[in-house]
Write a sequence for this structure.
């Protein structure tokens, strides 16, 4: 009888879509909190009429390969998956030595993922896995959590590990980050968020994947990217400064948002150079409550920054 604590996930970047690199030395053990990776057959029941009223047949007509991996954010752990979500490669940040920058791009990135039931010696393989969505949640008093949603083009039970003669790097050991003490800075429109006390920030990157399905193949032959839709929510206590968000929402004025998270050694800085806010008028709520203001945002392309979202690791 298998136990969830004995389930291991390992991942490797693919060089050819849907093909696991043979004997690769680039396998990495994933740290995760939950997973729903699955290959789910799509079936059609026969319409054949039988005089005994029985169902004649059911046939598999497709295979849906997808699922989420839930995570707790730590530095250096998910850089490959984040790169897959951005559809771009990390690039050395010339002005800042020791820093790398990631911008929204158009590169086709995919992964092979293996799910190992280590107590039973069983293996499930998932190939052609592209990152469809990345979600990150920064909330006071909580560990920084997130998830990566994947869609792929192949899933099967394999008799032995895909690693073959390759090697698997151990899971990273960097500390899990939290929003209470590890948020290094927050700035709005280029200034520190003075007078604004933020309770939570969320960030979602949706690549709007669409499955390419063709006759002669049960699983999709590819997963193609669409628009990189970047959205999120900022929850703050109402103040004179945060109250201004409501008018910015009415005016659909451009707002810049930047925040950093650090473990004391390594830092991630998220920059959204141009966002539009959607803010409902603050509500009193009820007796003995703080008045909050909630701002949904959508990131837009900024011609100066050349992107709608930038991530710097340093």
């Amino acid at each position: 009888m298998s136990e969830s604590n004995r389930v291991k996930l390992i991942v490797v970047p693919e060089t050819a879509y849907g093909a696991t690199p043979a004997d690769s030395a680039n396998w990495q053990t994933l740290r995760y909190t939950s997973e729903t990776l699955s290959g789910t057959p799509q079936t059609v029941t026969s319409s054949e009429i039988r005089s005994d009223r029985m169902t004649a047949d059911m046939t598999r007509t497709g295979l849906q390969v997808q699922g989420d991996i839930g995570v707790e954010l730590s530095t250096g752990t998910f850089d490959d998956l984040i790169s897959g979500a951005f559809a771009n490669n990390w690039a050395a940040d010339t002005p800042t030595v020791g820093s790398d920058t990631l911008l929204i791009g158009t590169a086709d990135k995919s992964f092979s993922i293996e799910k190992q039931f280590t107590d039973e010696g069983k293996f499930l393989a998932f190939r052609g896995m592209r990152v469809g969505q990345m979600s990150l949640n920064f909330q006071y008093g909580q560990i920084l959590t997130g998830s990566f949603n994947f869609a792929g083009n192949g899933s099967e039970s394999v008799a032995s590990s895909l690693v073959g003669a390759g090697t698997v790097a151990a899971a990273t050991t960097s500390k899990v980050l939290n929003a209470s003490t590890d948020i290094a800075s927050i700035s709005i429109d280029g200034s520190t968020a003075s007078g604004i006390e933020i309770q939570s920030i969320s960030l979602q990157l949706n690549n709007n994947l669409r499955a390419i399905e063709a006759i002669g193949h049960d699983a999709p032959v590819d997963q193609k990217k669409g628009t990189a839709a970047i959205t999120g929510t900022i929850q703050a206590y109402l103040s004179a400064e945060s109250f201004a968000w409501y008018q910015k929402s009415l005016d659909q004025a451009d707002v810049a948002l930047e925040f950093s998270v650090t473990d004391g050694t390594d830092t991630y800085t998220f920059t959204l150079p141009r966002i539009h806010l959607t803010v409902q008028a603050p509500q009193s709520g009820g007796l003995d409550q703080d008045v909050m203001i909630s701002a949904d945002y959508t990131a837009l392309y900024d011609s100066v920054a050349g992107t709608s979202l930038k991530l710097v690791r340093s």
Notes: DSSP finds two helices and 22 strands in the chain. The two ends are 44 Å apart (CA to CA).
